[in-house]
Amino acid sequence: MNYTGSMILFIFLVQLAAYTLKWLIGFGNPLISAPLLAMRLDNTLITPGSLLPDLVINGRITWQSRNNFRWRAILPLLLAMVAGVVPGTWLLRFSLPWIIKTVLGGVVVFLGLEMATRRLRPVRPDRREIPWLRYLVAFFSGMCAGLFGINMFLVAYLQRTAKDYDEFKGSICFLFLGENLFRTGLYLCTGLLNRSSLCFSLISLAAAFCAARLARLLSPHISGERLQKLSIVFFLLGGVSIIVKSILLHT
Fold this sequence. Notes:
Elements: H1 5-25, H2 29-37, H3 43-49, H4 51-64, H5 71-94, H6 97-116, H7 131-148, H8 152-161, H9 165-190, H10 195-218, H11 224-249
Helix pairs in contact: 1-2, 1-10, 2-11, 3-7, 3-10, 4-9, 4-10, 5-7, 5-9, 6-11, 7-8, 8-9
């Protein structure tokens, strides 16, 4: 991978926008970064390269929210998610890039439409949980994390079942952290973490630190609901563009 000045600037600006959203609402950075970065880069670089800043941010948010989630309910979900990461990583390593991008585009559009049809606040105390369904969602979310670095299916599910927003935020960041740690080890074993992905990580980490300061300045002035609506717009547009480009050009 040749990191030209324009490519470094492109990665930095996309990740700056993505991690600003992450710092503000606790999740959602792949909604911005995955479709935009996939327009110029392969997922074999984007997905492993995003792990380092994700680890840092999820670790900090998890520590801050450590008293707001139920360990007994979350640990089985983490195991199911980790189990899904393995086949997802295998597909990332051996599938054709344009096929991966086409599938990513479909996942992005589906998630964008799902999120556009419901409210941001995940307060559903009267909703009945289906045990096997949550583990299936966690497994599929792990597959998407291994392939694309996107585990938003579990986010969508927990938003519908968490008792309050504090429980949701603490739970999802803990799951993200555990999945990130497992995926780091798996990527090291499979050779997906290399010099190119490390350079990508360093650029992204610089963007994440700048995003933390930017988020502190913006948080008093921008509502979470408005941020989510904006991210969904980028998400849908990016998903459609990925599908069209990958099918027409096979790139």
